């Protein structure tokens, strides 16, 4: 008897605690990382705009 990945149906070792194969686990983690990076870069942009408006002033 063996376990199968909930997402892609790939066979996974019975010892695995998750119901996802390593591949899908990595994918899930990748999405979290991607979203985190997106939020972070958005914050950076907002921060740049705010600091620019405060100290920089208009260039033209
Ligand atoms: Zn899978």
Summarize the structure.
The chain has 60 residues and is mainly alpha-helical. Helices cover 58% and strands 7% of the residues.
Textual characterization of the structure:
With 60 residues, the protein is mainly α. It has one helix at residues 22-56; strands at residues 3-4, 11-12. The chain has one domain (3-54). Helices cover 58% and strands 7% of the residues. A two-stranded antiparallel ribbon has the order 1-2. Strand 1 and strand 2 (11-12) form a beta hairpin. The radius of gyration is 21 Å and the shape is rod-shaped. The N and C termini lie far apart (71 Å). The chain binds zinc ion. Zinc ion (ZN) is lined by residues 5, 7-8, 10, 20-21, 23-24.
Helix and strand layout, with pairings?
Blueprint: E1 3-4, E2 11-12, H1 22-56
Antiparallel strand pairs: 1-2
The chain binds zinc ion (ZN).
DSSP helix fraction: 55-70%
Number of E-type strands: 2
| Beta-strand content bin | 5-15%
The string of secondary-structure elements, in order, is EEH
Q: What small molecules does this complex bind?
A: zinc ion
Kindly report the spatial arrangement of strands forming the biggest sheet: 1-2
Rg, nearest Å: 21 Å
Spans with pLDDT under 50 lasting ≥5 residues? none
Tell me the major beta sheet.
2 strands, antiparallel
The backbone outline, from C-alpha atoms, is: rod-shaped
Number of helices: 1
What gap, in angstroms, lies between the N and C termini?
71 Å
Count of the domains = 1
Structural class by helix and strand composition: mainly alpha
Mean pLDDT across residues: 88
